[in-house]
Amino acid sequence: MAGNTGTPGATVAGRMLALLGAFDAAHRALTLTELAQRSALPLTTAYRLVGELAEWGALTRRPSGEYVVGRRLWDLGLLAPVQSGLREVASPFMHDLYAATLATVHLAVRDGTRVLYVERLAGHASVPVVSQVGSRLPMHATGVGKVLLAYAPEEVRAAVFADLTRVTPYTITQPGRLRAQLRRVHREGYAETSEEMSLGAASLAVPVRTANGSVVAALGMVVPSLKGVRPRLVAGLQVAAQGIRRSFH
Known about the structure:
Residues about 1-10 have low confidence and may be disordered. Helix 1 packs across helix 3 (about 45-55), helix 2 (about 30-40) crosses helix 3 and helix 5 (about 80-100) packs antiparallel against helix 9. The strands form 2 sheets. This protein has a 6-stranded antiparallel sheet, with helices on both faces. Strands 1-2 form a two-stranded antiparallel ribbon. The protein is an alpha+beta fold. It has 2 domains: about 10-70, Arc Repressor Mutant, subunit A; about 80-245, Beta-Lactamase, CATH 3.30.450. It has helices spanning about 10-20, 30-40, 45-55, 70-75, 80-100, 145-150, 155-160, 175-190, 230-245; strands at about 60, 65-70, 105-110, 115-120, 135-140, 190-195, 200-210, 215-225. About 45% of the residues lie in helices and about 20% in strands. The radius of gyration is 20 Å and the shape is globular. This is IclR family transcriptional regulator. Keywords: DNA-binding, Transcription, Transcription regulation. It holds the Pfam family IclR_C. It comes from Pseudonocardia eucalypti.
């Protein structure tokens, strides 16, 4: 169970962390009772601590009575050196891409077996885009996710391949096809999707490397179709990724 530290002698900080740890990708909104159960805390204790967390901004209470992670935690997370540094370095190159294509451009990192979107510029085209800053999506169904999966440790790939959920009728859930795509990322330097995460949307993504060559993020864009534009968009993404790499110190 997530955040289970409701043992005798647990500190106040430990109990608060247990409450925050109750949230995960499958439990984004929780009632007070659910928070108490998932953190193994007495309901009265959970009530008091959840109130303090909500007052500080770590949690937000919806009109329905459920609690979700608050904006203040996200703002705090952006101060982490990797994410804040990436966003600052990548920002001008993302704006250049957006200006040249008017497409949705996003920057993402791996968070366990999910892809975490840390920056996003919304495009003008009417394309269904499900990514938001702070959202976590399946790695196997997104362009940026496939790039990050291609360079992930073997244990991460094994965990992802064990749960290839079908998001749309076009999501690739056959392990052999997905492995072939990951090999292409290494060979050709980019990944693509076509209506795998949302119908009516295609995506392209390339790896973002640090100065020493390590892949730390993926840079991608979402467009209505890749027909006739793939080479130009891939080239633009790769130029931007190279610019980000040169800007790392």
